[in-house]
Design goal:
The complex is a heterodimer. By secondary structure, chain A is of the alpha/beta class. Chain A is 31% helix and 15% strand. In chain A, α1 packs across α5 (133-140) and α3 (88-96) runs parallel beside α4. Chain B folds into 2 domains: 8-287, 3-Layer(aba) Sandwich (Aspartate Aminotransferase, domain 2); 292-424, Aspartate Aminotransferase, domain 1. In chain B, 39% of the residues lie in helices and 14% in strands. Chain B has a 7-stranded mixed β-sheet with strand order 1-9-8-7-4-2-3, sandwiched between helices. A 5-stranded mixed β-sheet of chain B has the order 10-11-14-13-12. A two-stranded antiparallel sheet of chain B has the order 5-6. Classes of the chains: A alpha/beta, B alpha/beta. The interface between A and B is large, with 57 and 66 residues.
Chain lengths: 192, 426
């Protein structure tokens, strides 16, 4: 798996099939990116489970918070890691101990840990790093285009609008992930 | 769901647009509305705090304008765009997001006269200090950089003189200085040149010119390349620090590689206010659909007219980078291989009086202060746009007394040349 440039099919396949997402590092502070993403994905119909040891037993947007993944009493399809890159490996190790294990490990925008990714992939999990599922959902549904974002998708089909714009993700993609320039800049930064 | 990259002409027609979700309308509707109903109080709260994507008020975003924004971003290869009321407005918003009072930016001194005015006068009042550099001497950009420098600004093809900036070289200097490189790509359009491919971090346009292309709407756009590392360069508080306007969110953390476009929208456009009319956005979008066809014809006509002009006995010189032997010809081949644009200048042996006489005698060319119309346009800068400058400043800006600027339209080239021929005749 090329972790510099994901195909939209890879991302779309994940977002179209996972139902339950455990977010490690979900914050109760309404100005943090994790809160934004948690709320957005919850509104899009995903079952969201917040993981944060500092707030175990409390609720985030009506969802009970747990201290660690292994405390979650139900199967989880995807673990979304909202912690710094160096914390990703033990979280993946903990995820692999779940029964059943999740199908997807997702590391947030700015989070990349190739060792953790390799471990997850060796165990048959799909991995996405350095992306935000909220942004990817908004991009593939074209909802984010309202903010002028280049979704790199086109469609000649009429979409159906419903509720808070729960739009189809199934559009024609021009290329995966990022623009060429942004992807090249990202690679150059990592090689610095 | 094949993942292939559509060609430029396909993007010019399709990027950003799709049939209207409610009516099925295939052309992009003009959403002529000031505001948008909320689904619920919570939805409203989510929108105002940037937690979800959607429309609030047309000063901040509009679905017609959004199609235009995505389309130009796609054509330029950027991550996001923001359409605004004019090219000048685009520049105000960009610098508002980058500079604090007392900061500096380095700009090429070969720029559109309106930008020279804006940088020299209006920006001075904001405490944003321009330091000029010379695109003929790239090292002058390096020398102009100081610890207060927050950005470097050039045009791709400079107006009016046909100067082509060595963007890759300027981009290297910006990179070493740790500042974003802003390129005004108005004269080239992304059809002829994509500054992001040459290291630009931010691209701005006057949509009024070739992108809209029909001389009917003023507009501007900002494109975020998604290449600048706001998290490493901590000197940009609009991007890197918790924003009191939005309960302390940090934009680059929340929006990643399109954070600059979001900053321009939610901090600069929201609070400064130069919103684009959705009707103008519609006209400009319709123009962009034919951009590839028009630019091809503009460039073919411009080259033929430049060849004719330079051979005319009353003409002292012509400055068109598409002409072999022009001092910018090699840079044109590197940066604009499909054509050197359609705006160029030439000098009349008869000086100021001959320039005034020419603009008075044309019948097909329109004597006005614009470029990038389907129609051929002519202006004598010394008696009009650059009139208030001193003689020395006029020459420095490429607008000496003998200079005439043409913007070649897409009429039949024989008629364009015929009009110049009769106007130059005794």
């Amino acid at each position: 798996m090329d972790h510099d440039s994901y195909s939209d099919a890879h991302i779309r396949g994940i977002l179209n099939t996972v139902r339950t997402i455990a977010m490690v590092g979900a914050s109760q502070k309404a100005n943090r990116p994790s809160y934004f993403a948690f709320k957005y994905l919850l509104e899009r119909g995903y079952r969201m489970i917040p993981i944060n040891p500092g707030h175990a037993g409390h609720e985030l947007l009506g969802q009970r918070m747990y201290a660690r993944l292994t405390d979650v009493p139900e199967p989880v399809d995807m673990v979304d890691i909202f912690r710094s890159s160096r914390h990703a490996l033990p979280i993946v190790q903990e995820a692999l101990a779940l029964k059943p294990p999740p199908r997807v490990i997702w590391m947030q925008l700015g989070v990349r840990n190739d060792e953790a990714a390799a471990l997850a992939e060796a165990n048959g999990l799909k991995v996405v790093m350095n992306r935000c599922p909220k942004i990817e959902y908004g991009r593939l549904s074209s909802e984010i285009a309202w903010m002028g974002v280049n979704t790199r998708t086109i469609s000649s089909k009429k979409t159906t609008a419903g509720g808070i714009q729960r739009l189809s993700l199934d559009r024609s993609s021009m290329r995966g992930g990022s623009t060429e320039a942004a992807a090249a800049a990202e690679r150059a930064r990592r090689e610095d | 769901m094949s993942e292939r990259i559509p060609g430029f002409s396909t993007l010019a027609i399709h990027a950003g647009a799709q049939p209207d979700p409610t009516t099925g309308a295939r052309a992009t509707p003009i959403y002529q509305t000031t505001s948008y109903v909320f689904e619920s109080v919570d939805h409203a709260a989510s929108l105002f705090s940037l937690q979800t994507f959607g429309n609030i008020y047309t000063r901040i975003g509009n679905p017609t304008n959004a199609v235009l924004e995505e389309r130009v971003a796609a054509l330029e290869g950027g991550t996001a765009g923001l359409a605004v009321a004019s090219g000048h407005a685009a520049q105000v918003l960009v610098f508002h997001c980058l500079l604090q009072p007392g900061d500096e930016f380095v700009a090429s001194k070969k720029l559109y006269g309106g930008s020279i005015n804006q940088f020299t006068h209006a920006f001075k009042n904001f405490g944003w200090n321009v330091v000029w550099a010379d695109p003929d001497d790239i090292s002058s950009f390096e020398r102009a950089v100081s610890p207060k420098t927050k950005a470097i600004f050039t045009e791709s093809i400079a107006n009016p003189g046909g100067v082509i900036t060595d963007m890759a070289a300027v981009a290297q200097i910006a990179k070493r200085a740790g500042v974003p490189y802003i390129v005004d790509n108005t004269l080239a359009t992304p059809y002829l040149c994509k500054p992001i491919d040459h290291g630009a971090d931010i691209v701005v346009h006057s949509l009024t010119k070739f992108l809209g292309g029909h001389g009917n709407s003023i507009g501007g756009v900002i494109v975020d390349a998604g290449t600048f590392d706001w998290s490493r360069e901590r000197r940009y508080p609009m991007l890197c620090e918790p924003r009191p306007e939005y309960h302390g969110i940090v934009l680059h953390e929340t929006f990643g590689n399109f954070a600059f476009a979001i900053a321009c929208r939610v901090l600069a456009l929201r609070d400064i206010g130069p919103a684009l009319s959705p009707f103008n956005a519609f006209l400009i979008l319709t123009g962009i659909e034919t951009l590839p066809l028009r630019m091809r014809k503009h460039c073919d006509n411009a080259l033929a007219v430049a060849q004719w002009v330079v051979a005319h006995p009353k003409v002292a010189w012509a400055s068109y980078p598409g002409l072999p032997g022009d001092r910018f010809h090699n840079l044109a081949k590197k940066y604009c291989p499909n054509g050197a644009g359609a705006v160029f200048t030439f000098g009349l042996k008869g000086g100021y009086e001959a320039g005034v006489r020419l603009v008075s005698k044309v019948n097909l060319f329109s004597h006005l202060a614009n470029i990038g119309d389907t129609r051929s346009l002519i202006i004598h800068p010394a008696s009009t746009t650059h009139r208030q400058l001193s003689d020395a400043q006029k020459i420095e800006a490429g607008a000496g007394p003998d200079v005439v600027r043409l913007s070649i339209g897409i009429e039949d080239v024989e008629d364009i040349i015929g009009d110049l021929d009769q106007a130059l005749a005794d």
